Amino acid sequence: MDKIAVISDIHGNIPALQSVLKDVQTRKIEQIICLGDLVGKGPDSSEAVDIIKNVCAVTVKGNWDDFITKPTESETIKWHQNQLTVQQNQFLEKLPFSVEFIMSGRLVRLFHASPRSYYDRIQPWDTIDRRLSMFENTNQTENILGNTEPDVVCYGDIHNAYIQNIKGKTLCNVGSVGNPLDIPQASYAILEGIYGVEEVGSFSIQFVRVPYNIDLAINLAKEKRMPELEPYIKELTTAQYRGAHK
Questions:
Q1: Residue 114 to residue 217: CA distance in whole angstroms
Q2: Residue 181 lies in a domain
Q3: DSSP labels for 157-210?
Q4: pTM higher than 0.85, yes or no?
Q5: How many CB atoms lie within 10 A of CB 76?
Q6: Ramachandran region of residue 116, left (φ > 0), alpha (ψ -120 to 50) or beta?
Q7: Can you cite an annotated GO cellular component (predicted)?
Q8: Per-residue confidence of the chain (246 residues) as pLDDT tens digits?
Q9: Is residue 243 part of a domain?
Q10: Rg of the chain (C-alpha set)
Q11: Residue 10 lies in a domain
Q12: Strand locations in the chain (E)
């Protein structure tokens, strides 16, 4: 059986990323796919880009990876932009929208947020039609089997890991490595099956939670005098989104 580690939403949190990569290595998983948002929120976007570039077989683009390379009036975004080199910006600009492959007879599609946009946010409590729209083919997706829609979709973006079976299809969010908003531990998923084989066979999705040194992550942000520090600390320590209603 082949195993693929799927990580997402690193957000410049190196202690969390290092803990997840150590866990992946312990499990002897050789292929890693990243679903974007390498940068922003946390203090070490530059190092996150370099690590992901070296360890991931494929990385798709997230919303932060998209807008951080564009002009902005936000002082916070400008601070994060200043952490990146020209070469790192070019790497982010060239990231693909999605990736697809066959595993144990299933068409698997991975992207950051939705098949339509980096910014189209889908929650596990959205309507069935909204969640089923995650399986649509668009001009953004690869569509390696023509008009055939995927059997399995995994995404990132919402920092909230879950799995649902909807009308014979499987929808999975892998959570966030560096900014989880459900449990204050790094999250990733493992896809297990036979890679590249069209015959239907055994297939599984496993969620993994990895504790990491949150105090170290906070201290790194303090040392760099990162903007919006207090909301960042709240999110790391409580897993509560800064924009959530009280």
A1: 29
A2: yes
A3: SS---EEEEETTEEEEE---SSS-SSSSSEEEEEEEE-BT--S----EEEEEEE
A4: yes
A5: 13
A6: alpha
A7: cytoplasm
A8: 999 999 999 999 999 999 999 999 999 999 999 999 999 999 999 999 999 999 999 999 999 999 999 999 999 999 999 999 999 999 999 999 999 999 999 999 999 999 999 999 999 999 999 999 999 999 999 999 999 999 999 999 999 999 999 999 999 999 999 999 999 999 999 999 999 999 999 999 999 999 999 999 999 999 999 999 999 999 999 999 987 644
A9: no
A10: 17
A11: yes
A12: 2-7, 31-34, 58-59, 98-103, 106-111, 152-155, 162-166, 169-173, 186-193, 204-210
Residue for token digits 């946010």?
A: 121
Position 245 in a domain: no
Domain with 25 in it: 2-238
User: Structural domain tally of the chain?
Assistant: 1
The 3-state DSSP class for residue 31 equals: strand
The tokens for 49 are 């880009």
